[in-house]
């Protein structure tokens, strides 16, 4: 088994990841508190500061609000917001068929002349092929008869 180089493997993995991300739709949900990114989620909704505050107050802004005004102020404050970035694959893009393509007449003439120039000169003549009257050489020995066994 041939040994592949490390750079070859890394390049293959990067290209596979590129193909996967370009052909799959995905969404990233980010939670911002006072303009700072607090949490990020690739699967589902990012947990907000309020959800995290139920277990433990982690946001310094919310900690100050809790100390100054109590839990009621925490629910009324609107310092947090969620942003969702959705990247969709381009599966629904309509492809043009050959009949929908509009070619100007000069391009059509050029393509026709180019296609005709690629044809060999013999294809345009109606002469019969020279190998049609070829007779194969006679076989010196009849090999199938020599290899068969006959029951007598």
Automatic annotation (TrEMBL):
Residues 1-27 form the signal peptide. The keyword Signal applies. Keywords: Signal. The keyword 4Fe-4S does not apply. It comes from the Bacteria. InterPro entries: DUF8199 (IPR058512), HYC_CC_PP (IPR058060). This is Secreted protein.
């Amino acid at each position: 088994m041939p040994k592949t180089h490390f750079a070859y493997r890394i390049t293959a993995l990067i290209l596979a990841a590129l193909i996967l991300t370009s052909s799959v739709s995905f969404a990233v949900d980010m939670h911002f508190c006072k303009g700072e990114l607090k949490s990020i989620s690739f699967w589902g909704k990012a947990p907000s500061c309020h959800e995290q505050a139920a277990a433990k107050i982690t946001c310094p802004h919310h900690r100050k609000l809790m100390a100054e005004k109590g839990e009621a102020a925490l629910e009324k404050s609107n310092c947090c917001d969620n942003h969702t970035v959705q990247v969709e694959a381009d599966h629904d893009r309509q492809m043009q068929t050959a009949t929908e393509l509009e070619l100007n007449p000069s391009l059509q003439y050029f393509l026709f002349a180019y296609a005709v120039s690629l044809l060999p000169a013999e294809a345009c003549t109606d002469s019969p092929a020279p190998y049609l009257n070829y007779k194969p050489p006679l076989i010196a020995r009849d090999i199938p008869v020599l290899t068969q066994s006959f029951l007598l």
